[in-house]
Amino acid sequence: MASMEEDGSVEEKDNNNKKRTKSAIAVAWLTFYNIAMTAGWLVLAMAMMRFYLQKATHKGLYKSIARTLKFFQTVALVEVGHCAIGIVRTSVIVTGVQVCSRIFMVWFITNSIKQIQNEESVILFLVVWTLTEITRYSFYTFNLLNHLPYFIKWARYNMFIIMYPLGVAGELLTIYAALPFVRKTGMLSMRLPNKYNISFDYYYFLIIVMLSYIPLFPQLFFHMLRQRRKVLLGEIIVEKDE
Ligand SMILES: CCCCCCCCCCCCC[C@@H](O)CC(=O)SCCNC(=O)CCNC(=O)[C@H](O)C(C)(C)COP(=O)(O)OP(=O)(O)OC[C@H]1O[C@@H](n2cnc3c(N)ncnc32)[C@H](O)[C@@H]1OP(=O)(O)O
């Protein structure tokens, strides 16, 4: 009996140690990840400011930062993994929609359709994303280090009230500007007849993407409002199981 208890406590200790080791590794990884992402978006912010100060125009700005933007925005896919393995307490679906819509904007709209890269709406969502991500990743970093300045916490849970609608406006206006080029070129579309017997029209797909903002964006926005109430106002929010 005593030995079983002993065995049990050894096993329990071992499990606790494993949990501690796992969470220490998770914390170390997240700290590294968030510092790297803050740095990445700061580099983007500086590159955009330098471009604008030197050239006094937004024309050519997207092209000058495209590689860095594609890299850091694509790396954010890792965040869906963080949620899936449970090292951050966020919904896979909410994070997935947020990250995938951004990746779609970068790769399948702005990067693929050169004619729209100089639209003001591109600059709008770029500036909004950059300010948001610098705040968000520095919030996570300082939070993990247990040294979170109040103004960063305040900015994280207030800025989105303005930034989300502005970002969405930039994204939707950019997709809208892309429509005539997509229709004219038939890019990324498959017309019948073809050997796969499949038809796909990217033009109509983009219209569906634009319409999908109507049900999806409010979910993200209200999720952030709930987070805001929880963190800034200390409300206890009972989370529904996914
Ligand atoms: C294929 C075609 C696809 C087409 C799809 C079309 C869909 C269209 C709808 C989508 C519209 C999106 C528009 C958007 O792109 C526009 C903009 O972004 S504009 C700029 C404004 N944006 C924002 O403010 C972004 C806000 N979003 C986010 O913050 C996140 O992405 C979100 C997942 C929405 C919310 O984050 P989260 O739930 O994580 O909230 P918290 O920050 O409060 O964190 C919760 C807990 O998790 C911990 N956490 C999360 N991540 C980390 C991390 N990296 N490191 C450490 N810890 C992390 C966090 O600390 C919290 O922990 P705890 O509760 O324990 O304190």
UniProtKB/TrEMBL annotation:
GO cellular component: endoplasmic reticulum membrane
GO biological process, one term: fatty acid elongation
Described purpose of this protein according to its UniProt entry: Catalyzes the third of the four reactions of the long-chain fatty acids elongation cycle. This endoplasmic reticulum-bound enzymatic process, allows the addition of two carbons to the chain of long- and very long-chain fatty acids/VLCFAs per cycle. This enzyme catalyzes the dehydration of the 3-hydroxyacyl-CoA intermediate into trans-2,3-enoyl-CoA, within each cycle of fatty acid elongation. Thereby, it participates to the production of VLCFAs of different chain lengths that are involved in multiple biological processes as precursors of membrane lipids and lipid mediators.
Enzyme kind, highest EC tier: lyase
Pathway assignment: Lipid metabolism; fatty acid biosynthesis
Catalysed conversion reaction: (3R)-hydroxyhexadecanoyl-CoA = (2E)-hexadecenoyl-CoA + H2O; a very-long-chain (3R)-3-hydroxyacyl-CoA = a very-long-chain (2E)-enoyl-CoA + H2O
Membrane-spanning intervals of the chain: 26-53, 92-110, 122-145, 157-182, 202-222
GO terms, molecular function: very-long-chain (3R)-3-hydroxyacyl-CoA dehydratase activity
Subcellular location: Endoplasmic reticulum membrane; Membrane
Keyword Lipid biosynthesis: yes
PANTHER family tied to this protein: VERY-LONG-CHAIN (3R)-3-HYDROXYACYL-COA DEHYDRATASE, VERY-LONG-CHAIN (3R)-3-HYDROXYACYL-COA DEHYDRATASE 1
Pfam families from the UniProt entry: PTPLA
Topological category with respect to the lipid bilayer: Multi-pass membrane protein
Alphabetized UniProt keyword annotations: Endoplasmic reticulum, Fatty acid biosynthesis, Fatty acid metabolism, Lipid biosynthesis, Lipid metabolism, Lyase, Membrane, Transmembrane, Transmembrane helix
Family: Belongs to the very long-chain fatty acids dehydratase HACD family.
Protein name from the UniProt record: Very-long-chain (3R)-3-hydroxyacyl-CoA dehydratase
UniProt KW Isomerase keyword: no
Enzyme Commission number(s): 4.2.1.134
